[in-house]
DNA sequence: TATCTTATTGAAATAATTACAACTTTATTA
DNA sequence: TAATAAAGTTGTAATTATTTCAATAAGATA
């Protein structure tokens, strides 16, 4: 059992979800590839190394992570859910040309809180779309 | 032809999309019911009065409105697209208890622009989730 | 009014996600 | 360490939102 495996097992235990080989691989993939992957992208990549992997398991694991607060869903597009292991407050920018998703800092306190004084806020998402610098240059 | 019909025909013409009875009814529904309805909600409501209405037509019309800048898509939930005739900058709050969606003002300039200096931004969405005051009281 | 373009319709296709039941693995405790 | 209970994994099938497509109808233009 290598160090990162041990670390992941600890994280799972602390969050009250059971460890398993599959979950560690899925979480490991997300930690290493911060591309905000879809469930299908994770499945396609891991099936090469875990031939018995089921797509249902990927969905189950991702849902477990989200419930445990280890990941968040990014619904910047209406036809697919993406997953992000960075659960701290930040915004997401999707390039309409290359499709890549960029993180950017957001000062959430600065977003009009007065109108929402009487609301309990559990989740904050800021989604921008446009063209990234790389794609602007290639035009 | 009543006044609002005439107004809608003008709006469509100005935006370069063709007028039709169905489109005017769909746009009329959205203008009267600012609940950020789904395509299905619009369809279910209008089929009572337009028995030949097709769900495909609802989707086609909504897409036409969005392309023409007459509506925006609200993807606050990953399994359904909602539509909003208010295309001005504002945030959306979804109550996780009653499901209602509330609008709230957002100062978009205040959202960290430095990191995105070199990006062209076409669309800005702010989605919050939590519990609305009404549901907090009923607890 | 004739004609061209665009909208509407409904059935079928697509694609993402979930439900479910059988089986396997993990964690717990004796 | 072995037995047991609880939870995870798998694959198929179901579900749901949305799109495709070809035929038909309606709107715009001259």
Describe the structure.
The structure is a homodimer of 139-residue chains. By secondary structure, the first copy, chain A, is α+β, with helices and mostly antiparallel strands. The first copy, chain A, folds into two domains: 3-74, Arc Repressor Mutant, subunit A, CATH 1.10.10; 91-137, Dna Ligase, domain 1 (2-Layer Sandwich). Helix content of chain A is 37%, strand content 23%. Chain A has five helices and five strands. In chain A, the strands form two sheets. In chain A, strands 4-3-5 form a three-stranded mixed sheet. A two-stranded antiparallel sheet of chain A has the order 1-2. In chain A, β1 and β2 (80-84) form a beta hairpin. In chain A, α2 crosses α4. The longest helix of chain A has 14 residues, at 55-68. The first copy, chain A, is globular, with a radius of gyration of 17 Å. Chain A starts with a helix and ends with a helix. In chain A, 24% of the residues are buried. The mean pLDDT of chain A is 94. The interface between A and B is large, with 37 and 37 residues. β5 (120-131) of chain A pairs antiparallel with β5 of chain B. Chain A binds a DNA duplex (30 and 30 nucleotides) through α2 and α4.
Taken from the alpha-carbon principal axes, the silhouette of chain A is globular
Number of domains of chain A: 2
**Strand adjacency order, main sheet of chain A:** 4-3-5
Largest sheet features of chain A: 3 strands, mixed
Summed up, the helix count of chain A is 5
Low-confidence stretches of chain A: none
What's the assembly state of these chains?
Answer: homodimer
Our measurement of the CA-to-CA distance between the termini of chain A, rounded to an integer number of angstroms, reads 49 Å
């Amino acid at each position: 059992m290598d160090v990162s495996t041990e670390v992941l097992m600890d994280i799972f235990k602390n969050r009250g979800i059971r460890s398993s080989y599959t979950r560690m691989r899925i979480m490991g993939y997300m930690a290493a590839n911060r591309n905000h992957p879809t469930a299908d992208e994770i499945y396609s990549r891991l099936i090469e190394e875990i031939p018995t992997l089921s797509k249902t398991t990927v969905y189950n694991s991702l849902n477990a992570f989200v419930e445990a607060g280890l990941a968040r869903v990014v619904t910047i597009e209406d036809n697919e859910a993406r997953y992000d292991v960075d659960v701290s407050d930040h915004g997401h920018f999707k390039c309409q040309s290359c499709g890549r998703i960029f993180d950017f800092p957001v000062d959430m306190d600065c977003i009009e809180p007065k109108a929402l004084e009487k609301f309990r806020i559990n989740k904050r998402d800021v989604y921008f779309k446009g063209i990234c610098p790389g794609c602007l240059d290639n035009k």
